[in-house]
Amino acid sequence: MNRILSTKGIFTFAFALFTITFYAQDNFGGLALYTVRDNMGEDAKATLQKVADAGYAYIEAAGYNEGKFYGMEPQEFKSYLKSIGLTPVSTHMGGVTLENADQQIADTKAAGFEYFTIPVPPMGMFTFDRENRTMGMKGTMKEFVDILTTIGKKCEAAGLKLLYHNHDFEYKDNEDGIKPIEYLLDNTDPKYVNFQMDLYWVTRAEADPVAYFEKYPGRFKLWHVKDMDEEGKFAPVGEGTIDFARILKEKKTSGMEKYFVEQDMTWDKKPLEVIKISHKGLKEIGFK
User: Fold this and answer.
1) For position 26, what pLDDT does the model report?
2) Would you say 216 and 208 are in contact if contact means Cβ atoms under 8 Å apart?
3) pLDDT in tens, 163-189
4) Residue numbers in the chain where pLDDT is lower than 70
5) Which of 3, 94, 128, 173 is 20 to 30 A off residue 107, Cα-Cα?
6) Residue 219: how many CB atoms within 10 A of its CB?
7) DSSP symbol at 34
8) Is there a contact between 185 and 219 (Cβ–Cβ < 8 Å)?
């Protein structure tokens, strides 16, 4: 009897392992969990399972608070992702300061992430004009570079890679006639600081992603693949106007290692529906 139960247990384990391996091999691409942030707030584990079921292979987090990722200790978060065939690649850490950086870096490392990504100018430098709905920053570009470099050195020492993620204002001239993104690229050491390019926001700024790949080869390690409709709003990948196929041809020049679907607002569609549409769009465009 014990032998029969043992054999049955081995079969069940083997089948489960096969299932996870099969889906992990079939899945591709990444999802920025900011897209499904409301769902993550309601039931993080169930939502992550749905992300895997939608065909994604890896994720970028945007839910760190008080030492936990979506309410889970770093090791628990890492273990759960592994159990459903998802890989943690990047996490947005908008609340980082020079004072808490060491702890946040340690937690990011413990959760299994490779990239520590800063989504906006940190430490109170980011500004948002609600009336005009425009983003910007205060403080000097040198201060910004110094902060990124200091945190980047801490990340490098811990075995992580620091990235800065853009919106549109970094690709526009500021009041001093300087494009913040170019100042950052020109004044940071790629050993410590590189970049995540959000293709929607670069396009929204009327800049050309490919031109930046050519001018600064190898500096854009991750992409946000986010489409734009004819009104300039966020759209599912493949249903908008951005020529992703043209951009994808230059991924080697970019230095792109991973990419993530992201859609900040999904309008009349549910986020969990949108991520399926976008994953289909990725495949049709030629992403792998």
Assistant:
1) 87
2) no
3) 999 999 999 999 999 999 999 999 999
4) 1-25
5) 128
6) 20
7) G
8) yes
Query: Hey, what's the torsion of the CAs at 65, 70, 75, 81, to 10 degrees?
Result: -150
Residue 282's closest CA among 272, 257, 274, 22? Answer: 274
Strand segments (E) across 134-282: 134-137, 161-165, 194-198, 220-225, 227-228, 234-235, 258-261
Q: pTM of the predicted model, to two decimals?
A: 0.92
CB neighbours (10 Å) of residue 283?
A: 14
- CA–CA separation, 160 vs 175, rounded Å? 34
DSSP 169: G
In this structure, what token pair is assigned to residue 61? 């987090």
137, 105 in Cβ contact below 8 A? no
Which residues neighbour 287 within 8 Å (Cβ) at sequence distance 6 or greater?
28, 29, 225, 244, 248, 259
pLDDT tens across 256-288, in order?
A: 999 999 999 999 999 999 999 999 999 999 998
